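quick one before i forget lol
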Amino acid sequence: MVLKRKHKIVIGGLSTIVIIALIINSVLLYMLFVKVEVNYNSLDTKITESESKISELSTSLLETKETIGSLDIQFDELKATTSSDFSGIIEKVIKSVVTIRTDAAQGTGFIITDDGYIVTNAHVLAGGHEVWAIDYNQQKISAEFIGYSEDMDIALLKITGNQNELKFADSNNIQIGEKVIAIGNPLGLQFSVTEGIISGVHREGTNRIDAYIQTDAALNPGNSGGPLIDTSGKVIGINNFKVSGGESLGFALESNYLVDTINLIAQQYLNQTLI
């Protein structure tokens, strides 16, 4: 059947309309796709920015926490330096101090490494066959004897477990008149604290070595082997002896000599350096 001219025009018009409609739909779909793509990229950028801000916020919070902790330490040190209030310092260090008890006597010691090495005076162990360390929580722990230096009156012990150790100050930097505290177990009174000042440095000891701090912090039997602490909570000496017949004449082996002696004992008996 042959189409008439008017029929061809109608069919052609309809075809054109359909094609135009398809083109318009394609354009609309493309524009919609572009808009979705732009929105997706924008959302992805915002998510990335949010993650970055969250990361920055977390870092800032951690830094703030560290700063607060540092400020707390500085505040405790400042309080100890400018007043007689050592409470903040003592609270931190006293848990690293132990009572040393043998089957013959008792004294004091303190933890010097996080794996449980303890230093004390050698004379605290004299005559004993078994040694225990009693910590701040009154836990009685069997202690292994490692070795000692007779000349410096220093002994090294070891207990098990993870421990909080004390840090050492450079005894070359200590000054006469500086505030100090001694922690020990005088006459069996565990974890007693006495305050004083440094009265002299490089005093001669019974071993004829000019290696001792003179302090007016009260030292009594049982204080031997305990730490002498500065206002930052670091060890500047190990309490060793007092002069009988005199008042406030206590002596502690200076920390630099103590560290050297500890390492000599460790090298001799353990073939290693501890500090």
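fyi The two ends are 110 Å apart (CA to CA).
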